[in-house]
């Protein structure tokens, strides 16, 4: 089917909207990208999927894509000129009342991620279509999603959920939870694993099973607090803007494990100092690369 002038005008208008949305988002410090299904599921980690069959779904609840999230704005307007031909051919089909096949989506938290049919969704958005037919596969999650959500906001939601789940399950009034704060998904479950490993080693030397509560108290006093004390002594947080002492604890425990493969006798204090020096070098090298890049651009202007 030949692409008519109306479709070309529709594409140009939609692309201008994507550009305007990008500028507005930059000015208001908001996200203008579609959510990536892969990135979202790598954080949320759905436990199951269910084939739901054919459904009619709201277009305004489509917030992401499996593979084309770089090609469209968060409102699903086209961002790239390379999309013109495909986009216009679909728009022409809609203008001429050609019935198009349903799109294919994943349902996640009440919202949808396109598997197949990104251009059809974009045209539907541009045409003001409210509903679209879709073949739906549902992924389970208890994390709330919403349009325009950034990956940082999603990570924060996941961290809050994991913290609340930990508190609900273990009722840790015996731990100073105000001092144990993480900002990375997976950290609270990892903390539980640290406590259980600590519990295991304690049980090797006694003839009874200690409780999770007693193991957690011992972990905090004998593992977590000494490492945090070293972090403070080395002023390590200054090299990690936006990180908490809990984040640093997790990072250092992983680094400490790596160091122990080289030297089994390395102490926590030595691991902290070594990691701090490495981090300082990383910051310096990044600053050095940035200045070289900036000066190169300046010389060309």
Automatic annotation (TrEMBL):
InterPro entries: ParB/Sulfiredoxin_sf
The protein's name: Transcriptional regulator
Native organism taxonomy: Bacteria, Pseudomonadati, Spirochaetota, Spirochaetia, Spirochaetales
């Amino acid at each position: 089917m030949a692409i008519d002038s109306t479709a070309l005008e529709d594409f140009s208008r939609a692309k201008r909207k994507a550009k305007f949305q990008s500028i507005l988002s930059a000015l208001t410090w908001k996200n203008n990208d579609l959510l990536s299904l892969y990135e979202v599921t790598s954080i949320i980690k759905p436990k199951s999927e269910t084939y739901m069959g054919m459904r009619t779904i709201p277009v305004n609840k489509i917030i992401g894509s499996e593979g084309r999230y770089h090609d469209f704005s968060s409102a699903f307007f086209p961002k790239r000129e390379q999309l013109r031909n495909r986009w216009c051919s679909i728009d022409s089909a809609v203008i001429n009342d050609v019935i198009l096949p349903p799109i294919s989506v994943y349902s996640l938290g009440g919202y949808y991620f396109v598997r197949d049919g990104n251009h059809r969704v974009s045209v539907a958005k541009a045409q003001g279509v409210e509903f679209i037919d879709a073949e739906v596969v549902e992924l389970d999650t208890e994390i709330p999603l919403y349009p325009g959500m950034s990956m940082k906001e999603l990570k924060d939601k996941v961290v809050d959920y994991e913290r609340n789940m930990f508190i609900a399950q273990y009722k840790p009034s015996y731990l100073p939870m105000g001092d144990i704060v993480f900002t990375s998904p997976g950290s609270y479950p990892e903390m539980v694993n640290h406590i259980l490993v600590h519990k295991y080693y304690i049980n090797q030397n006694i003839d009874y099973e200690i409780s999770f509560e007693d193991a957690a108290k011992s972990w905090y006093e004998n593992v977590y607090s000494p490492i945090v004390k070293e972090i403070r002594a080395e002023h390590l947080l200054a090299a990690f803007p936006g990180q908490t002492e809990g984040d640093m604890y997790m990072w250092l425990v992983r680094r400490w494990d790596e160091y122990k493969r080289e030297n089994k006798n390395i102490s926590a204090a030595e691991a902290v100092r070594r990691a701090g020096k490495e981090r300082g070098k990383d910051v310096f090298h990044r600053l050095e690369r940035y200045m070289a890049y900036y000066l190169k651009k300046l010389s060309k202007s």
